[in-house]
TrEMBL record:
Keywords for the protein's UniProt record, in alphabetical order: ATP-binding, Coenzyme A biosynthesis, Ligase, Nucleotide-binding
Domain of life where this protein originates: Archaea
GO biological process, one term: coenzyme A biosynthetic process
Naturally occurring in which organism (per UniProt): Halorubrum tibetense
Protein name: Phosphopantothenate/pantothenate synthetase family protein
GO MF, any single term: ligase activity
Amino acid sequence: GAADTVVVPLEDGDRAEALAAAGKTEIVIDLNPGSRGPRTAAIPIIDNVIRAVPNVTAHARDLAGASSSELRRVVDEFDADEALTAAEAAIREGSFDGDGDVA
């Protein structure tokens, strides 16, 4: 069957744009917040894919027991543009810590 949400790892702006045009929800993992993929994504993750996948898995486990209303709040409060702006600022300031988080 067709997927509603697609993970696009490793800097693939063409694929990200095509999936967005097809109405898919995209989770894009990229090192550059200015790349086409993250700018197109519903959920941009600015990090190394080796760190990002385990971090996403850990967050999913943390949310496993959350109620539907809690999950809806998380989704509704997420702002992709704000995430990209914060990632770019952290890169410019050198404020990423060793775990890929903003220090």
